[in-house]
Amino acid sequence: MTDVSSSAVSLLALLLSALGVTGFILSLILREFNRPKFVVALILSLAMLAGGTYFCWRTFQPPFEGTAGSRLPGRSPVLDQDRLPRPSSGISLELKQGEKQITLADGETLPLKKGARIILTDVKVPGVAPSRIRVNVVGFIGNPNREAEDRNVEIDTNGFLRKFALNPEGTRYKVAVLRDKDEIAAFFLDLK
Predict the structure, then answer these.
(1) What is the dihedral of CA 66, 67, 73, 76, to 10 degrees?
(2) Percentage of the chain with pLDDT > 90?
(3) According to the model, what pLDDT value does residue 29 have?
(4) DSSP string of 22-41, one letter each residue
(5) Total Cβ atoms within 10 A of residue 149
(6) pLDDT band at 6 (very low <50, low <70, confident <90, very high)
(7) Fewer CB in a 10 Å sphere around the end CB: N or C, the chain?
(8) What's the average model confidence in pLDDT over 77-102?
């Protein structure tokens, strides 16, 4: 549908809803004068209101995105987001392991030995002020006074909480990059 035709349909749907509400109000006024006409006016106004509401819902609803095998019509099947390939976002994470400086791209995995110590030094997010960005190692509590911010804190992989691991063995953890409260990138740590 083109923008003009979809906006015309939207306008007609809203107009039909408005007429339904107006008809309902007028039917309540008509009730005082003529009972049989009130019933007819009430039914017609409620039908117009329901039709307008339905068309508004159909117009403003996102397009159908279901696939074969979807459990619900219009919904994509639930997928493990950590296993899907992510498009390159240009976001990178810089960290230190000992004296070694390491840079990871969005979605990359860093293999580490259990007991290794790392420091997340910086995250590069194109076009976003650093003050709006937080880096959170999910399953690690560095500084309890800083909510979901683990930059410039020494992270001991022995201190990871197993219940936050991404696998049953407790060896895979996520490093989430958050803008305000939304996750915009993820990196992974695999402990061997």
Answers:
(1) -60
(2) 28
(3) 77
(4) HHHHHHHHHTTT-HHHHHHH
(5) 16
(6) low
(7) C
(8) 72
Measured distance CA(164)–CA(78) in Å, rounded = 20
Sheet holding 154-156, edge to edge: 100-105, 92-97, 117-124, 154-156
Q: What are the structural domain ranges in the chain?
A: 3-60, 92-191
CB proximity list for 5: less than 8 A, separation 6 or greater: none
Q: Cβ atoms within 10 A of the Cβ of 58, count?
A: 10
pLDDT at 80: 47
Per-residue confidence at 78, pLDDT binned at 50, 70, 90?
very low
Comparing 159 with 147, the larger pLDDT belongs to 159
Residue-wise DSSP of 141-181: -S-TTSTT--BTSEEEGGG--GGG-SSTTS-EEEEEEEETT
122: its two tokens: 């910086």
**pLDDT, position 70:** 46
Burial readout 104-122 (b: 16 or more C-beta within 10 A, e: otherwise)? bebbeebebeeebebebee
